[in-house]
Amino acid sequence: MIANIKPRFLRFPGGNFVGGTLLRNAFRWKDTVGPWEERPGHFNDAWNYWTDDGLGYFEFLQLSEDLGALPIWVFNNGMSNLGREKASNVSVFVQEALDGIEFAIGDSSSKWGSIRAAMRHLKPFDLRYVAVGNEECYSSEKSAYKENYLKFYNAIKRYYPGIRVISNCDGSVDQLDHPTDLYDFHVKSLVQLCDLFSNVHHFDHTSRSGPKVFVSEYAVYREDAGTGSLLAALGEAGFLIGLERNSDVVEMVCYAPLFVNVHDRSWSPSAIVFNSYQTYGTPSYWLQHFFSNASGAMLLNATLLTNSSTSILASAIAWRNSVDGRCFLKVKVVNFGSIQVKMKISVYGLGSNLINSSRSIKTILTSNNVMDENSFKEPSKVVPRSSPLENAGKNMEVVVSPHSITSYDLMLDNECPGLV
Predict the structure, then answer these.
(1) Of 260, 262, 350, 375, whose CB is crowded by the most CB atoms within 10 A?
(2) Which CATH code is given to the segment(s) 3-290?
(3) Which domain of life is it from (predicted)?
(4) Model confidence over 196-211: pLDDT tens digits?
């Protein structure tokens, strides 16, 4: 199910899991490598369960490689969810981070690279990004985080200048006062779905001269989300439209959490639900499919003309199918309202390019009730449905269903605008 959304990266091992409620229960990567039966395991007090760490640092790197995704390692920065290590001891965590990078990308003759090689991965992993902690800069320990962060940043840049370092201080409104390659932005603390939908413009005025944004955790949760509702997915769709429009400053984005065991819903919802033998995706999971080919696409100028409410959002991209090389114009429309909307879609600037109506398709994610969810009994209750777009052309009239996201994929017979 992860592979089917074509991830470009995998952020691991998680959020609060990284720091632990108490620092002694933080994820320490050195305890998670080597023979599985020799790993001590640890108590994940952030989410209240014991983990044997069979899914450890090495396995996360291997999973990223198997998925064809770049690994983004989030390491502990000497702080837990309830406090920080003494400043004199932070150097221990700095060295641990440097050793972890060596394990991933060091030569097989190096100290930690040799341990990776002994685990039958002779070649280095393609680790390019590391994140210094998780959400500490959002807390009352902001100044302590910055003090620790600089120790990690300076050490990593000294020994591994090619590694891109991510700060979790928000730079979307005010300029950051410390160096970083990217900054982490989370938007999951909003209870009502309308809040996230209205965040479509959040990055419109963000500085274009500073570091770029990594939106590593976004989701609608609590009342509006249930255990994974269509309503939550539509709110997220509006937010993602805004990120796509601001892709010159937003470099990466991912939903979180990714998985939840149905018998332990400490947080709800998550994208993929499982038990010991079944799995299904929430509407938020299926929403990812509408944006999975946006990476490497060309954002097109799109103007939405309407005298109605602000419940309609839209974007347009040109993308090339990696399988057959075919080029498509994808127009995505989110209708957050409760009534259907008639629209006219007009395409300009194609020159001699023709739209192939027989190969164009329409895909829609909607349901009869906006609070509908998927389940083990009905895993496909709220999933994207595709059909031929028979009236595809440079000018076409469409009817957008209420409470829906719709993708109009117009196949071009000739070249892809702006793509090589």
Answers:
(1) 260
(2) 3.20.20.80
(3) Eukaryota
(4) 777 888 999 999 998 9
